[in-house]
Amino acid sequence: MTVAVDTDLALELRGVSKQYPGTDTAAVSGVDLQIRRGEFVTFLGPSGSGKTTTLNMIAGFISPTAGEIVLHGRNIADLPPHQRNLGMVFQNYALFPHMSVWDNVAFPLVERKYPKDQIRERVRAALEMVNLTGFEKRRPRELSGGQQQRVALTRALVFDPPILLMDEPLSALDKKLRQRLQLEIKRVHREVGITFLFVTHDQEEAMALSDRVVVFDQGRIEQVGTPDELYRRPATRFVAEFLGDSNLIEGKLVERDGATALATPECQIPLPDWPGGREAPSGDEHCVMFRPEDVKVLPADDEGAACRGTVRDVVYLGSEQRVIVTTETGREVTVRTGGETTGIPGVGGTVGLRFSASNAWLIPTGG
Amino acid sequence: MLKLAQQTTRRLRGIHLAIPLLVLLVAFFAIPVLELVRRSFLDPDGALTLQSYGDFLGTPAYRTILFRTFFVAVVCTVTCLLFAYPYAYLMTLAGPRLRRALLVLVLLPFWTSLMVRTYAWLVLLQDTGPIKAVLAAIGLEQVHLIRNTTGVVIGMAQILLPFMVLPLYNNLQKIERSDLLAAQSMGATPVRAFWRVYFPQSLPGLFAGSVLVFILALGFYITPVILGSPQNSMMSQLIVRQVTERLDWASGGAMAVVLAVLTLVFVGLMSRVVNVQQAFGGTVDKK
Amino acid sequence: MTSTETRSRPRWLYLMAAIVAIWMTAPPLVVIPMSFASERTLTFPPSGYSLRWYQEFFENPVWIDALKSSLLIGVLVMVISVVIGTLGAFAVVRGRFRGRGVLEMVGIAPLVVPIVVLGIGVYAMFLRWGLIGTVPGFVAAHCVLAVPYVMITVGSALRVVDGQLERAARVLGARPHRVFLRVTLPLIAPGMLAGGLFAFVTSFDEVVVSLFIVSPGLRTLPVEMYSSVTRDINPTIAAASTLILLVSTVLILVSTKFLFSDSANGRSKR
């Protein structure tokens, strides 16, 4: 039945598209993606970017207008949701309010017509594993947020699905709880070892959880990569701006003293150890990204300053602070400094800026 | 072709669930009402005519009854409003227990049978009844509470009060009380703050409740029959008399059509401002 | 503690509420003592007390037959209205067809049209159809008035049902009919129960339409009370009223238990 299956692949999307009738632009267009078994992959993007639509097509709530969805070698694009055998955790968990914890967890087993004694054994063992023994008779509403998440996860995993989908399960929670539950999700992923597919609009959450992140924008995949790849080597302007703070500086690449430099009207940023292997044609307009931690604030008269500017704002963030500097031409540069505040004048003071070239990244043109 | 067929079926998805409802409403609501409309346009020989409508609007006695019906409906509406507004306002201020008690109280009329209530008012308001005795004791022997509009309004407004209180309460509970403090902090007296900041925000609920009460009041029958008198009859009584006593279906039908159309005009007016379904729904949900 | 400014409740508000309270509770409070009157009287309070009117009620076949007819018709109306109204609510809330809004308006039209208009129209047609004085005739006419309540209660319950719960059930392996049985139905059950109670009460309490379609052989309790009030007022009607009060109080308690209990409602609304 299956031909030339890559047994390492859990899920593959081939040219998956969704166009709603009566609309001009596709909600999702031509998504190709391969997810390996056991991977933790996150769909990241702003609302309306197509990440949730794609997830819903995988789950079977929306049928794609084109493309194949291959789960463990089988095209499931035409199957109704209940035949896909997917685990899923919803936003706000979607625990059945009229059922006890026990009945919620037993639900997928009952619907799969497992024998009664097996259901009893599995539910008991599953609840024991997540420390919910003793809570069997409670209603979901009588549980804390963390307990609810554990029930939702248990319910989605109790029937050993090959993949677990999670649709923004943490988006409604406050930051503290969210961080705690992220750790728990990671722990569960390590323990069960199956493929996790997570959807979020929160880039920090995506970075914290994932092996790989798929960045969506306007119905398309912008970039797929590890959190570090996305942060350090964004493929497009959108990715650079969506993940973390970034300073995108446009200018001409010029040769100066035998080394490359980025020239803007007010700055000359030397890029001596410009990462090799990449073609950086001189003379053209280019966009180079510097993360805020790769920029340093210097005294105004420092020789090494690439350019000068005025401190517009200093935001204290505990272990670090963020300094926003406006250059002579009005460009805003964000600088993240360590705890040391010495040498940084107050708002209105003049400072010099130095850009660390080693982590500079050339945003490909057209991105 | 195929695509068109698919589109048609998609557009009709779910409508089959409404078939029993439609059968019920067509057979036992639409057909009976349309039959009444049909008869209103027929003369005794079965020819088409507008005679019945002309007779109705041309007869001063009938016009008086129509105006009285409107008058009673307006009086009921105002009476309900006068009691319902403070009542609903108190509900928004009350703690959960008092609020629940107030809610149950105002819903009592829903749960006491119409005949039970009407009979009770008959006992209470009659000339030898307890309320009359109290009035007589303070020198108001001349006031009669029954067989006149007073009795009808007391009985009707009691039944209608929940229909005013519930939309109003739904509205008032959404108004931020801090708005009143804000207005006072800017120099308004409490009374001015109420009228300029709070009251305008309550107008949608006030309007919904008023129209609802007014519409329902137009159609009352049992209460005016028992607590009123034939000399003070309302439209519903007149319609029934025409049909059951004079066997004049055309005339009764014409009056019924006029009353129904007037009611629907007000429903239409109301639906421009509020969701009629919700206005009823809000009442029913709380029952 | 909230500041006194925001919570000040003038005394006159309480006075108004007290008047309303007396106004609302007076009828039932009058009816109960009247039913125990010892004489044939309309005077309140009665001069002496007895149980003779209850005896009269239970021994007079006219009253007992009317009570039985009312209960039979009420139960039939309840069952039929819940079925028709629930299906209708699904069509209105979940259907995907043009004219859903119109259907929704049509569904509550019987509540808005003056009741005598319906009564006379039904009278005219029932004469022709031979439905005067028949149980099916009563049930049909009462259903027209009861179904809108079911549509409203079930409709609002259905609107509250989180679509995500149904999707969760589907993806967790439930077939469509199982999703309905195990998730949707339990979640709208309180709405159906409330609608059913309204349907029963609507029928049990209906006078106007019933007056037109009664026959000497089939009379309902409210009709019997109506003729008692208009012909020869005797305290049997008070006994009947007290019994009705008793029944409706039990119904309220049952419905409150179901409607306000959190276990039935899934999530508390406030």
Automatic annotation (TrEMBL), chain A:
<dbReference type="GO" id="GO:0016887">
    <property type="term" value="F:ATP hydrolysis activity"/>
</dbReference>
<dbReference type="GO" id="GO:0005524">
    <property type="term" value="F:ATP binding"/>
</dbReference>
<dbReference type="InterPro" id="IPR008995">
    <property type="entry name" value="Mo/tungstate-bd_C_term_dom"/>
</dbReference>
<dbReference type="Pfam" id="PF00005">
    <property type="entry name" value="ABC_tran"/>
</dbReference>
<keyword id="KW-1278">Translocase</keyword>
<dbReference type="GO" id="GO:0015417">
    <property type="term" value="F:ABC-type polyamine transporter activity"/>
</dbReference>
<keyword id="KW-1003">Cell membrane</keyword>
<dbReference type="InterPro" id="IPR003593">
    <property type="entry name" value="AAA+_ATPase"/>
</dbReference>
<protein>
    <recommendedName>
        <fullName>Spermidine/putrescine import ATP-binding protein PotA</fullName>
        <ecNumber>7.6.2.11</ecNumber>
    </recommendedName>
</protein>
<dbReference type="GO" id="GO:0043190">
    <property type="term" value="C:ATP-binding cassette (ABC) transporter complex"/>
</dbReference>
<comment type="similarity">
    <text>Belongs to the ABC transporter superfamily. Spermidine/putrescine importer (TC 3.A.1.11.1) family.</text>
</comment>
<keyword id="KW-0813">Transport</keyword>
<keyword id="KW-0547">Nucleotide-binding</keyword>
<dbReference type="InterPro" id="IPR003439">
    <property type="entry name" value="ABC_transporter-like_ATP-bd"/>
</dbReference>
<dbReference type="InterPro" id="IPR005893">
    <property type="entry name" value="PotA-like"/>
</dbReference>
UniProtKB/TrEMBL annotation, chain B:
<dbReference type="InterPro" id="IPR035906">
    <property type="entry name" value="MetI-like_sf"/>
</dbReference>
<keyword id="KW-0813">Transport</keyword>
<feature type="transmembrane region" description="Helical">
    <location>
        <begin position="65"/>
        <end position="90"/>
    </location>
</feature>
<feature type="transmembrane region" description="Helical">
    <location>
        <begin position="249"/>
        <end position="270"/>
    </location>
</feature>
<comment type="similarity">
    <text>Belongs to the binding-protein-dependent transport system permease family. CysTW subfamily.</text>
</comment>
<feature type="transmembrane region" description="Helical">
    <location>
        <begin position="12"/>
        <end position="34"/>
    </location>
</feature>
<feature type="transmembrane region" description="Helical">
    <location>
        <begin position="205"/>
        <end position="228"/>
    </location>
</feature>
<keyword id="KW-0472">Membrane</keyword>
<keyword id="KW-0812">Transmembrane</keyword>
<dbReference type="GO" id="GO:0055085">
    <property type="term" value="P:transmembrane transport"/>
</dbReference>
<keyword id="KW-1003">Cell membrane</keyword>
<dbReference type="Pfam" id="PF00528">
    <property type="entry name" value="BPD_transp_1"/>
</dbReference>
<feature type="transmembrane region" description="Helical">
    <location>
        <begin position="102"/>
        <end position="125"/>
    </location>
</feature>
<dbReference type="InterPro" id="IPR000515">
    <property type="entry name" value="MetI-like"/>
</dbReference>
<keyword id="KW-1133">Transmembrane helix</keyword>
From TrEMBL, chain C:
<feature type="transmembrane region" description="Helical">
    <location>
        <begin position="237"/>
        <end position="260"/>
    </location>
</feature>
<dbReference type="InterPro" id="IPR000515">
    <property type="entry name" value="MetI-like"/>
</dbReference>
<dbReference type="GO" id="GO:0055085">
    <property type="term" value="P:transmembrane transport"/>
</dbReference>
<feature type="transmembrane region" description="Helical">
    <location>
        <begin position="71"/>
        <end position="93"/>
    </location>
</feature>
<dbReference type="Pfam" id="PF00528">
    <property type="entry name" value="BPD_transp_1"/>
</dbReference>
<keyword id="KW-0813">Transport</keyword>
<keyword id="KW-1133">Transmembrane helix</keyword>
<feature type="transmembrane region" description="Helical">
    <location>
        <begin position="179"/>
        <end position="201"/>
    </location>
</feature>
<feature type="transmembrane region" description="Helical">
    <location>
        <begin position="12"/>
        <end position="36"/>
    </location>
</feature>
<feature type="transmembrane region" description="Helical">
    <location>
        <begin position="138"/>
        <end position="158"/>
    </location>
</feature>
<comment type="similarity">
    <text>Belongs to the binding-protein-dependent transport system permease family.</text>
</comment>
<dbReference type="InterPro" id="IPR035906">
    <property type="entry name" value="MetI-like_sf"/>
</dbReference>
<protein>
    <submittedName>
        <fullName>Polyamine ABC transporter permease</fullName>
    </submittedName>
</protein>
<feature type="domain" description="ABC transmembrane type-1">
    <location>
        <begin position="67"/>
        <end position="255"/>
    </location>
</feature>
<feature type="transmembrane region" description="Helical">
    <location>
        <begin position="105"/>
        <end position="126"/>
    </location>
</feature>
